[in-house]
Specification:
Elements lengths: L2 E7 L3 H12 L4 E4 L11 E4 L2 E4 L5 E2 L6 H8 L8 E3 L6 E5 L6 E3 L3 H11 L4 H16 L23 H8 L3 H7 L15 H13 L1 E4 L4 H13 L3 E3 L4 E6 L5 E6 L4 E9 L3 H5 L9 H9 L5 E9 L10 E5 L18 E5 L12 E8 L17 H21 L7 E7 L1 H8 L30 E3 L8 H17 L1 H11 L1
Parallel strand pairs: 1-2, 1-13, 2-10, 7-15, 13-19
Antiparallel strand pairs: 3-4, 5-9, 6-9, 7-8, 11-12, 12-13, 14-17, 14-18, 15-16, 16-17
Helix pairs in contact: 1-8, 1-13, 2-14, 3-4, 4-7, 13-14
């Protein structure tokens, strides 16, 4: 197939961003994708003329001058994406079974504080303390501010701070504690483990400003791919990488594809899960200790999703997301033995150019463990058998019952629905056990769960949601970090700032 300067494995957001950066800088880049469609979690699929997102449902920090706005300008995305700003007074709504009050997240730090203070007037100081803390954490991450300052991990105390404990300590109001952690599904927070910095970087980004991509997030993949090709890069789909190939001097020189073709390169970047990466490398090239550490890391939970095609003009478009909990427990707990399914849901009505008044489709998501579908793990998509189909239908009906409980009459809006399980997510995005956000970060041992873009193989680097953080902003920062290994951080940061 030829020899390239850089071979990138995976065409998700990180793979495409790395491909864009390096091809723009003159590297001859080749991106290899196992599926027919590029994009990873940026992928869309269409049912009954409705476009559904698989992973990217809304984005933060896109207002002029904010961090992702600057990154998107560099990637030539802001100029080309169709975007819709969400309700600035209520971009997220959090509600609890039995509590008539709905708690609204408002855009902008002042508006956010003022809105929450209306619900919790005695907790004004706690709310301001919380906001100052998460802003302070963000200021300590250089690439959150597009700076090339060094991040000294061992000295950053908030890496060792637990999000659940911190929120408990700043307020004794139990309901406020739950509301501050109410968008937990955006990072699948485990109360015994999730670090405060994960919570802070995710929440602060959306508080700054919140947006939806109109007509599907695959636009991001398409725009990046077109720029990569204009820069002379190559994107090859329907070809799974099966092995890394080394020469007699133990140098990584190529990868082997499922069709037995060989792709040679000088440098390699794997954006797929580190566990899946090291499976393709002979044991002699990576130390046992490194393999053991990577293989032992816990992954975040997966999800179950119902994709709804709406009856015409039946469901009003919601310019916000609704998080609903059947009880006050918004955290996933390692010690819980009475997990009742479904315990929560997230309702989203995607933005479309067809209508701003009514939703043509909707998505309902809730947590689901891979163990629930383990018996079908070796089956193929669309061929898992009748029992699996019955399982999905039973779970979908249970979830819809919960939605109906919160929104009476919701079922009347449904024309048809489709479902996905952790197996679906695993097969289409390549994540281990269908994990939503990859490796679970752990405040008890933060350094262990932070994966370096460098590996012990000199010309093999890692990128993707397992480096730094998940989400659009987290993955973008990870892509910059990985590419800086080739270009230099000072040069790359200057290039990004110059593009703004």
């Amino acid at each position: 197939m030829g020899k390239y300067d850089v071979v990138i494995i995976g065409s998700g957001l990180s793979g495409l961003q790395c491909g864009y950066i390096l091809s723009k800088e003159g590297y001859n880049v080749c991106i290899l994708e196992q599926h027919s469609q590029i994009g990873g979690c940026l992928q869309n699929f269409k049912r009954d003329n409705c476009v559904f997102d698989t992973g990217i449902h809304y984005i933060g920090s896109l207002d002029e001058g904010q961090v992702l706005n600057k990154y998107f300008k560099y990637f030539e995305l802001m100029q080309n994406l169709k975007l819709k700003r969400m309700d600035e007074n209520s971009f997220d709504v959090i509600s609890f079974d039995g509590d008539p009050q709905e708690y609204r997240y408002a855009m902008g730090h002042k508006r956010f504080a003022d809105t929450l203070t209306q619900y919790f007037p005695k907790e004004k100081n706690a709310i301001h303390t919380y906001l100052e803390k998460i802003k302070n954490i963000c200021e300590h991450f250089p690439l959150y501010n597009i700076s090339n300052d060094a991040l000294n991990l061992p000295e950053m105390s908030f890496f060792y701070e637990n999000a659940y404990i911190y929120i408990q300590n700043i307020t004794k109001d139990v309901k406020l504690q739950k509301v501050l952690a109410g968008i937990n599904p955006l990072y699948a927070g485990v109360k015994e483990k999730t670090p405060l910095y994960v919570h802070a970087l995710v929440n602060n980004s959306f508080i700054e400003s919140t947006w939806r991509i109109v007509d599907g997030s695959s636009q991001v993949a398409d725009i990046l791919a077109s720029k990569i090709k204009l820069n002379g890069g190559t994107i090859i789909t329907n070809n799974r990488v099966t092995n890394f190939i080394f020469n007699n001097s133990d140098e990584l020189i190529a990868v082997k594809l499922g069709n037995n073709e060989i792709v040679e390169g000088k440098t390699f970047i794997s954006t797929i899960h580190p566990v899946n990466t090291i499976k393709m490398i002979d044991e002699k090239y990576l130390r046992y200790v490194y393999r053991k550490r990577i293989n032992s890391l816990e992954n975040t939970i997966s999800n179950f999703t119902v994709y709804i095609v709406c009856q015409p003009d039946s469901l009003e478009y919601l310019n916000y997301n609704h998080y609903y909990y059947i009880n006050d427990n918004v955290w996933i707990s390692e010690t819980s033995t009475d997990f009742k399914w479904p315990g929560n849901f997230l309702l989203i009505t995607p933005a479309t150019s067809a209508s701003t008044k009514y939703a043509s489709n909707a998505m309902i998501m809730t947590y689901m463990h891979m163990d629930e579908v383990k018996k079908w793990e070796h089956t193929q998509e669309r061929n898992r058998g009748l029992e699996y189909l019955e399982f999905k239908k039973e779970r979908a009906e249970s979830l819809l019952d919960l939605v109906e409980r919160k929104f009476p009459g919701f079922r009347k809006c449904i024309k048809k629905y489709y479902t996905s399980t952790p197996l679906t997510y695993r097969d289409y995005t390549g994540t281990v056990d269908g994990s939503m956000y990859g490796i679970l970060k752990d405040s008890n041992d933060p350094i262990k769960t932070l994966i370096s873009p460098r590996t012990k193989i000199p010309n093999l680097y890692l990128a993707g949601q397992n480096i730094i953080l998940h989400g659009v902003l987290g993955v973008t920062i990870g892509s910059i970090t990985t590419c800086s290994e080739l270009l230099g951080m000072k040069y790359l940061v200057k290039s990004i700032n110059d593009a703004c």
